[in-house]
User: Which sequence fits this backbone?
């Protein structure tokens, strides 16, 4: 798949905080290439730059993604508003690399570890 | 809602140019004297801020404007008149260029408009309505200091400001445009307001007498039926032929716009009628018609009883509220109905219909609840077909409700249907009971009927239903918090992080989120606490982009007099439709925090392009072309600063966002607008 260099340059610049500790290759595929593909093929538009989810636009993909086969099925025969990704558009190798990237995303903080998301912080004091 | 000011026959303003200013000064200095002289008048006018109502005018015959002074009634010789009208040719009746008028049509129009309680006039200036413009600034504003002329840089901004203002103020703002080029600019914003069922009082300057058009531009800006171009999406329009006709049609326009379903109305006002002297002088000004108290249409009694019967007997009722709560009372009534039934309420988020943290608020569970419901009550549903229907990606449809479920709608829009524009959505064919009525006006009767019909033995079952719903609400809230934690420390900044950083700064104050939240996946509704009608007002109406920045400024203007903290989360693409509104915000000193959700794209379109390109199996690595807003990136903070608005950003590190918001809000609290540019995830 052709990757547009200017686009990738711009997008990768936004991933400074995300890319620090990614292994180069894991058991599924090439993590670095997977990250590039994830951005270039538009996954991030609906699912966030680290697969964190995009609200109503797309569910969370990472960390701990669905099994690879389930992800592939959703790409090939999507449910909901997800665009279809045939093997012509996204070969199995690319899917595997993207999966490797999603699998490599470390767990972030939970709501309980973020003061702003604790129940008492979501209460309003408005008059 | 503020009551319109009733300027009675003897209370309307009458003046020569000098007289008006003298009376203003006198009124300011001797307000106590005026109070003794006319206590009833002051009681009425205090609300509208009228300083010095003056001497009487007499009703005229109501005949049309008479531009030729040679045929005008005899003048009061005490009124100044410096010049003789210019001689006229046989081919034309040119503009009356006399130097001094005792009073002009525009003054009368201002009197009419403020009798309706209109306080603000938004416009990008134009010569076809200079007669009113001049009367507002040199007559209205000098005699009623709370009148304001809001300068905009696009007619779409004028209309959108009025749109947002009305949803907070509960009454229309006036806005003015050229007939041709102005109305063409304003059209999309009018359609938004129409589809959002919002009242706006619009006027266009109309050059009706072709022989009095001064030049080629006057011809280019004229149309024989200008309002026709927006008639499909205005509630009513008229082209008055005399000042008396203007007065009657202005009151009628206001009345129609404020009768549910609310909507924008339009008067095409003859340019020269605005400019010329009142026929017969100020003392012959027509009377100002009385605006009645407008009673909204309530549901028919038998239908209300039947709806109550179905709701009371239901095991799994669902209440769906779209544009249901027109006023704060509407929200309280819906709470009453839900609590007496212990029924879940799903809010479309087109209004603040129901408190966000009320245990019966189940908005995020709409589809699941519909699938189990045996009775659904839909209040002012904008799209009942989609509500009651499940549609798959191939367009196949099936009922979203179980077999045998009953569907009830209460909709004021059915009272005034129009064709052409398709805002009515697809016909919903399985509705059992459709009340053509205003939902809010029907709720008191429905609540009483539900109480009357409710068997005493149902209490335990209702309590159990309520507890289950409260538990579901808590679970939804916890899930929303957990979901918000995903990507919390990412850059670009996650949308939940952006929303929560904003909330962290405002939650202790009397805040009002004046922007829609659909592009933020309604995260404020999921994570914030809100229970006031003004804390959320929905969005565009017709999904016309370019609404958010100006409409939220209009809403902030309405909030200003209440001292509320207004916040607008505006998309970068939306803002760039009309960034000149930032100058208006600074110029008018309207306190508002703009938070730019800057995903550097027309993001929705990128997602849609992905679907199309992949269906054609051509790859999506080029779908950003035409949709991205980068190369170069826009520096929104610098743009804001260039127009006098405090600017922060671009903020890319989430740790920087809280302090930036804090600094910006300090400016807003001082009464000025501010903008924070947040480089964000797409959604």
Assistant:
């Amino acid at each position: 798949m052709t990757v547009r260099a200017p686009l990738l340059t711009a997008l990768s610049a936004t991933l400074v905080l995300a890319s620090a500790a990614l292994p180069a290759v894991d058991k599924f595929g090439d993590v670095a290439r997977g990250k590039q593909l994830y951005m270039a093929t538009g996954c991030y538009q609906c699912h966030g730059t680290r697969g964190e989810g995009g609200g109503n636009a797309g569910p969370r993909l990472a960390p701990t993604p669905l099994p690879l086969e389930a992800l592939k099925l959703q790409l090939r025969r999507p449910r909901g508003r997800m665009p279809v990704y045939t093997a012509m558009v996204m070969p199995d190798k690319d899917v595997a690399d993207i999966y490797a990237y999603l699998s490599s995303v470390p767990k972030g903080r939970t709501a309980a570890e973020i003061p702003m998301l604790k129940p008492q912080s979501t209460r309003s004091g408005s008059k | 809602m503020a009551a319109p000011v009733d300027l009675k026959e003897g209370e309307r303003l009458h003046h020569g140019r000098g007289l008006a200013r003298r009376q203003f000064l006198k009124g300011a200095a001797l307000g106590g004297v005026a109070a003794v002289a006319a206590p009833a008048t002051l009681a009425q006018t205090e609300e509208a801020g009228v300083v010095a109502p003056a001497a009487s005018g007499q009703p005229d015959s109501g005949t049309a404007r008479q531009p030729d002074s040679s045929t005008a009634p005899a003048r009061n010789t005490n009124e100044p008149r410096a010049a003789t009208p210019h001689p006229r040719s046989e081919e034309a009746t040119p503009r009356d260029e006399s130097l001094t008028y005792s009073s002009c049509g525009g003054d009368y129009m201002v009197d009419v408009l403020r009798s309706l309680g209109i306080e603000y006039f938004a416009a990008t200036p134009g010569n076809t309505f200079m007669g009113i413009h001049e009367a507002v600034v040199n007559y209205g504003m000098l005699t009623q200091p709370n009148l304001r002329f809001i300068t905009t840089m696009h007619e779409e901004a004028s209309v959108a400001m009025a749109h947002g203002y009305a949803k907070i103020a509960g009454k229309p703002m006036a806005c003015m445009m050229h007939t041709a080029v102005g109305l063409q600019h304003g059209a999309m914003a009018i359609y938004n307001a129409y589809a959002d069922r919002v009242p706006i009082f619009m006027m266009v300057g109309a050059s009706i007498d072709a022989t009095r058009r001064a030049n080629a531009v006057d011809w280019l800006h004229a149309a024989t039926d200008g309002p026709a171009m927006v008639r499909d999406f205005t509630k009513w329009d008229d082209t008055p032929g005399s000042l008396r006709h203007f007065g009657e049609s202005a009151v009628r326009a206001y009345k129609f716009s404020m009768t549910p379903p609310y909507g924008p109305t339009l008067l095409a006002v003859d340019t020269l009628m605005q400019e010329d002297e009142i026929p017969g002088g100020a003392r012959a000004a027509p009377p100002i018609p009385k605006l009645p108290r407008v009673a909204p249409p309530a549901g028919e009694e038998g239908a209300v009883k039947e709806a109550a019967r179905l709701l009371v007997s239901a095991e799994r009722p669902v209440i769906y509220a779209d544009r249901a709560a027109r006023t704060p009372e509407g929200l309280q009534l819906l709470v009453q109905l839900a609590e007496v039934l212990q029924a879940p309420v799903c809010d479309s988020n087109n209004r603040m219909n129901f408190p966000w943290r009320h245990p019966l608020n189940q908005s995020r569970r709409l589809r699941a609840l519909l699938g189990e419901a045996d009775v659904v009550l839909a209040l002012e549903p904008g799209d009942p077909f989609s509500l009651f229907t499940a549609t798959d990606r191939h367009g196949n449809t099936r009922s979203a409700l179980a077999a045998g479920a009953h569907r009830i709608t209460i909709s004021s829009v059915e009272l005034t249907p129009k064709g052409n524009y398709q805002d009515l959505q697809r016909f919903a064919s399985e509705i059992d009971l459709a009340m053509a009525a205003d939902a809010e006006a029907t709720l008191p009767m429905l609540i009483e009927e539900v109480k009357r019909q409710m068997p005493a033995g149902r209490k335990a079952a209702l309590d159990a239903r309520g507890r289950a719903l409260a538990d579901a609400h808590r679970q939804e809230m916890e899930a929303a918090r957990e979901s918000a934690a995903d990507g919390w420390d990412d850059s670009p900044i996650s949308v939940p992080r952006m929303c929560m950083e904003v909330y962290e700064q405002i939650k202790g104050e009397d805040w009002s989120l004046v922007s829609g939240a659909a592009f933020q996946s309604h995260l404020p509704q999921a994570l914030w606490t809100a229970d006031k009608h003004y804390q959320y007002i929905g969005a565009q109406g017709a999904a016309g982009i370019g609404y958010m920045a100006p409409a939220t400024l209009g809403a902030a203007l309405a909030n200003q007099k209440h001292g509320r903290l207004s916040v607008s989360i505006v998309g970068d693409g939306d803002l760039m439709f009309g960034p000149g509104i930032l100058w208006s915000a600074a110029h008018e000193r309207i306190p508002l925090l703009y938070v730019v959700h800057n995903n550097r794209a027309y993001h929705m379109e990128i997602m849609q392009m992905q679907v199309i390109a992949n269906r054609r199996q051509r790859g999506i690595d080029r779908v950003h072309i035409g949709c991205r807003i980068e190369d170069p990136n826009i520096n929104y903070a610098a743009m804001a600063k260039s127009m006098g608005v405090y600017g922060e950003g671009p903020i890319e590190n989430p740790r920087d966002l809280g302090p930036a918001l804090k600094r910006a809000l300090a400016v807003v609290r001082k009464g000025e607008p501010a903008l924070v540019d947040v480089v964000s995830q797409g959604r």
Observations:
- Residues 1-88 of chain B have pLDDT under 50 and may be disordered.
- Chain B touches chain A through 64 residues (CB under 8 Å).
